From TrEMBL:
Protein name from the UniProt record: D-lactate dehydrogenase (Cytochrome)
Domain FAD-binding PCMH-type: 21-238
Cofactor(s) of this protein: FAD
Pfam families: FAD-oxidase_C (PF02913), FAD_binding_4 (PF01565)
Keyword Nucleotidyltransferase: no
Amino acid sequence: MIYKDDQELIKSYLTDTSNIQDGHTPGVYFPETVGDVSELLEKCASSGKRLVIAGNGTGTTGGRIPFGDYVMTMEKLNRIKEPVQCGEKSAIMTVEAGALLEDIQRTAKQSGWLYPPDPTEKLCFIGSTIANNSSGARSYKYGSTRNHIERITVVLSSGEILDIPRGRHLAGKDGLFSLNLPLAGNMVFAKPDYSLPLTSKHNAGYFSQPGMDLIDLFIGSEGTLGVIVDADLKLVPFPEKIISCLVYFHSMKDLFSFVEQAKIKSGGVDPRALEFFDRNSLEFLRAAYPEIPAVTSGAVFFEQEVTSINEESALESWFSLMESSNAMLDDSWVALDVNEQRALRAFRHQLPVQVNEWLNAQSESKISTDMAVPDGSFVELFKFYRDTCEKNGFRYIIFGHIGNAHVHLNILPSNHDEFLRAKALYKDFIAKVLELGGTLSAEHGIGKLKAEYLASMFGDKGISEMARIKKTFDPDLILNIGNLIPEPYFTISDQP
């Protein structure tokens, strides 16, 4: 076990991409084995010392930032085993929590396999993506991280090491779990008593559904229930070929029609990703890509996995859909080979670069959303975002995962007054999303930044349910306090 308390050496563990600036810690622990993690947690539980579990600093919600607690970073636990085929079209790869996503995806590809989850930031730790149930563009076809985890090892706050394979521990018809643990003995507890929104992506609070698997309680729990130290990832065959395209539209009506038809998946159209850029996003990108049409309302990026047998027919189906949707065919960008697809992926990732360059010249941070709604409500939410920003004179962009009715609104304040007005409007956005049956967070999680808003979605009773589950596994309240659950709810949950 390595420990560092030189403040100059550990200052990088006080930040992530949330732009929270006032984190502080007495020191950082660097466990090198699962045994190290277990020993440290056991000592912390007996002494009351609190720990923040640190990923690689790529999160957006302040989850790894300490406010006086100690930090435990998982970076030394970074081993990746070779994939082991377990079926004609599946394989398992065992990885430790500190392994980088890009290294995992590279190792899988070298053996002819694909690990489907694809968060934009490839330098994230795999354990963090599991704890956060991360997703990305390919989630339209493959779903979030949860769908690709077959087993995890979790160290509880007591130091107990718990192996959780999928399918072993299921909630009964009465909603109860029963675990017989070597140290804790027999644990009986109920699953969270609330319903989740009917969105295709959701990442806010503990998972709950009838007959649920215990592994799914830990996936997406943001490190509040235990420390994920390793996992078995489920792989699929690497696709033979991919076609991708960036399609421009003169009108949003035509763009929405195109997306709606693409999601029907008929006639050979079967996207694995459907991504959106509004006209303001394209304006940001025009500095790096002057070939973007001067007059366009927005664009859709899509990808589809194909084979040499069906590639031509799939392309014909897409072109037919583009034509019937009045797409700007002459201006659209079709990428069929590896180099063109790499260039198109660079286009997609250039947007945050351009936005960050603009923000660096400003004195204020952006206000951003990560909300999603059921498919049928997406257009209403989009118009609410757009019209609210236009009415207030904000500079803004809207982009993201339109296939999942999940786009990000970024308001870009030019002064402090605009920042305050935009921050005040965030509650209006939450209210609208909840009115439409949506979720507060679809992929980035809650962390510390959004914990205060979670009760608006689940109510006090729902947050108290989360506090109950938290105290079942972490009775001494030493893990990631302040993440997900506002601290006052631990007192509320004790009241009769």
